[in-house]
Amino acid sequence: MAEPRPCILIPVYNHPATITPLCTELAALEIPLLLVDDGSDQQCAAVLDRLAEQGHHLLRLETNQGKGAAVRAGLRYAEQLGFSHALQVDADGQHGVDDLPAFLATLKVAQGTLVVGYPRYDASVPRVRFYGRYATHIWVWINTLSLDIRDSMCGVRLYPVAPLNRMLARHPCGNRMTFDTEVLVRWHWAQGAMMHRPVRVHYPRDGISHFAVWRDNRQISLMHTRLFFSMLWRLPRLLARRFQPHREASP
């Protein structure tokens, strides 16, 4: 195998207060950073320009398109830049940077594996968010006929860039909050190797959320419905896989 060349991919939409401290922390990993400006306002765009002047890669989308669109654009750009893997991290600084080296360590043994983070919450997590995630968990388990995907909503995952871009060319997986879940379900359907790693999650009291309750919940519901009916015609293959050995890679 060729030597892996990873980057850290950060979709950014109006996080001017957190993105610079986050980049400072991530710089300690000595891996290139790729920032995707998802149509941020002038204040955040200026912060991102300064980070680009420091040597970080910056891809700018002129209008806000949503997290999924920003990640897809970032993955395509990462491939153009010659990166083999992209470690996706959210811009709000809620993920434990100390947990990220464990994701990158998997490149030594499993370069084709998609490494998925699952959250280890502290006391700051809102109860409504903690328990609300289980609606999506249950639908994911139904749509894959398995418990293979431990958590499909955590914003930390290590993507193998080229194979994922090929899959996304066929199945874009949504522009907004549906992306993180759908991309894992479709990767699972394609029998892509998957591994899980824990990541600590802290919700700052003054944190910024771009979750639009009515719009995003509606899109998430439609996504689960669409995946369910797509699962039905895959049912024979999914049932056959139940008798195969467990597919999760191990370091």
Number of strands: 7
Individual helix count: 9
Helix content: 40-55%
Strand line-up across the major sheet: 3-2-1-4-6-5-7
For the report, how would you describe the main beta sheet?
A: 7 strands, mixed
Which structural class is indicated by helix and strand composition? alpha/beta
Verbal overview:
- This protein has a seven-stranded mixed sheet with strand order 3-2-1-4-6-5-7, with helices on both faces.
- The chain is built from nine helices and seven strands, in the order E-H-E-H-E-H-E-H-E-H-E-H-H-E-H-H.
- It starts with 5 loop residues before the first strand and ends in a 10-residue tail after the last helix.
- The longest helix has 21 residues, at 213-233.
- It has helices at 19-27, 42-53, 67-80, 100-105, 127-144, 161-170, 179-189, 213-233, 235-241, and strands at residues 6-12, 33-38, 57-61, 85-88, 114-121, 157-160, 194-201.
- The chain is 43% helix and 17% strand.
- Helix 1 links the parallel strand 1 and strand 2.
- Helix 3 crosses helix 6 (161-170) and helix 5 (127-144) packs parallel to helix 7 (179-189).
- It is an alpha/beta fold.
- Mean pLDDT is 89; it is low at 246-251.
In short:
This protein is an alpha/beta fold and 251 residues long.
Question: How would the blueprint of this fold be written?
Answer:
Elements: E1 6-12, H1 19-27, E2 33-38, H2 42-53, E3 57-61, H3 67-80, E4 85-88, H4 100-105, E5 114-121, H5 127-144, E6 157-160, H6 161-170, H7 179-189, E7 194-201, H8 213-233, H9 235-241
Parallel strand pairs: 1-2, 1-4, 2-3, 5-7
Antiparallel strand pairs: 4-6, 5-6
